[in-house]
């Protein structure tokens, strides 16, 4: 029979890092920390896990007390949605520079003469010779 250990799920966002933990006894506990707080800790996820282990009776903060840590982030997704990330260049096979602009043409009115296209996620396109052999 395997020993019950902690499980952690982490969502690191641009402002906050949220951690949900399952205590070895099955209780769910959560913690929210500022993602960036260098005067108090260097990594919010590690700090939240450490705090939860100490506050809930696990003197052992080593990895032997932990079964799993799963992490996701919304930082890149938010930068993409808000379009405030770094400028990006698309490298694409020669002859396909407009492939992402054309997309699938799955508009509600395919025959409309005046269409509104979404802004592209890249600022420039560079066509490159395709490599088709190893």
Question: If you had to describe this structure to a student in words, what would you say it looks like?
Answer:
With 134 residues, this protein is an alpha/beta fold. Helices cover 18% and strands 29% of the residues. It has 3 helices and 6 strands; from the N terminus they run βββαβαβαβ. The chain has helices at residues 44-55, 75-82, 99-102, and strands at residues 6-12, 16-22, 28-34, 66-73, 89-93, 124-128. The chain has a 4-stranded mixed sheet. The longest helix has 12 residues, at 44-55.
Structural domain tally: 2
Q: Return the structural class.
A: alpha/beta
> Which fold does the CATH topology of the largest domain refer to?
Nucleotidyltransferase, domain 5
Radius of gyration: 23 Å
What fraction of residues sit in β-strands? Answer: 25-35%
* Mean pLDDT rating: 87
Labels describing this entry:
2 domains, 6 strands, Nucleotidyltransferase, domain 5, elongated, 134 residues, alpha/beta
In short:
By secondary structure, the protein is α/β, with parallel strands linked by helices.
Topology:
Layout: E1 6-12, E2 16-22, E3 28-34, H1 44-55, E4 66-73, H2 75-82, E5 89-93, H3 99-102, E6 124-128
Parallel strand pairs: 1-4, 5-6
Antiparallel strand pairs: 1-2, 2-3
């Amino acid at each position: 029979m395997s020993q019950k250990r902690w499980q952690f799920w982490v969502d690191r966002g641009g402002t906050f890092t949220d951690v949900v933990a399952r205590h070895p006894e099955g209780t769910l506990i959560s913690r929210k920390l500022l993602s960036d707080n260098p005067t108090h800790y260097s990594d919010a996820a590690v700090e939240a896990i450490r705090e939860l282990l100490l506050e809930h009776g696990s003197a052992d903060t080593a990895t032997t007390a932990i079964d799993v840590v799963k992490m996701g982030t919304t930082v890149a997704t938010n930068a993409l949605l808000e379009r405030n990330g770094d400028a990006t260049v698309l490298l694409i096979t020669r002859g396909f520079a407009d492939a992402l602009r054309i997309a699938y043409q799955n508009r509600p009115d395919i025959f409309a003469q005046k269409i509104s296209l979404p802004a592209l996620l890249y600022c420039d396109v560079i066509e490159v010779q395709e490599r088709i052999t190893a």
